[in-house]
Amino acid sequence: MPADRHTISVVIPTLGRETLASCQAALAKQTRPPDEVIVVLDRERRGVAWGRNEGIARSTGDVIAFADDDGIPPADWLERLVSALDRHDAAVAGGTFQETDPLLDAIRRRTPLPTMEQLDPGGLVGNTGNILFRRDCLMVCEQADGYVFNPAFTGAGEDWELIWRLRKRGARMVYVPNPVTHLRRATGIQHVRHSFQRGLAIATLFRVMRADTSGVVPQDSLLWGEAGKKTNPRWLKAGWLKLVGPFARKEFHDARHFWWFWLGEKCQAAGFLWGMWRGIWACSGTHRSQGSRSTATSTTERRP
Known about the structure:
Glycosyltransf_2; Nucleotide-diphossugar_trans; Glyco_trans_2-like; Glyco_trans_2-like domain-containing protein; alpha/beta
């Protein structure tokens, strides 16, 4: 029986990448071995939210960790996460990535993260390639919302949406500075495509946030809040930074990395605008459909 007295399940959603074997090998070398590893192969490309929900349904652990199929956890990954979870009596413990791709590494270095373990007021914990949850807090979400990870998020953003719902329920979160090595490689074109998809996810998250009345947000954003509290969107500053800036050339040693990052920000803005328009169109279509059904019903009711 491990000293922590937990049963740990590790869930890995995958499309079948070759890097999956490296992730599994790293899990086999953990100083605190997992009690079970559940690999969910998404043959029909239903999205990571589906894969993670499927993994939760198959798991038996009282704590559930999530890894990505292109991430290599350090040997003490589970040991440090579960130790921090218990020490802080937290519901969630997590960290971030150490990028191996030069472009992604240059972009990630723009936002330095703490080097000390600490309770997270918002914005540090949420990356589902390096995170561990108490099962009971996930089950509360499933019972209340009908799902753990929101299936409306098919490409990105499902992790932060879940963190937001947990924060609304008062979940304590602890940041553990023990990064997972990320094997993802990204050409400039791949990066801008991913940025567009991320923009779509931000639009979905924005609509969810604006409709909510709790006043709680998962992280600081020009679109929905700061210091963990909801604020009005700061459209002017957001537009300036995304459509014109950011003016961060000095933060990059390689000029090519900066220009791909700069172009990615424009693509993210385009994805956000497309996602917002698509959401508005979908809502208007729903209203028209409901109006048609109401008319048909009323006509039927008037029959003798």
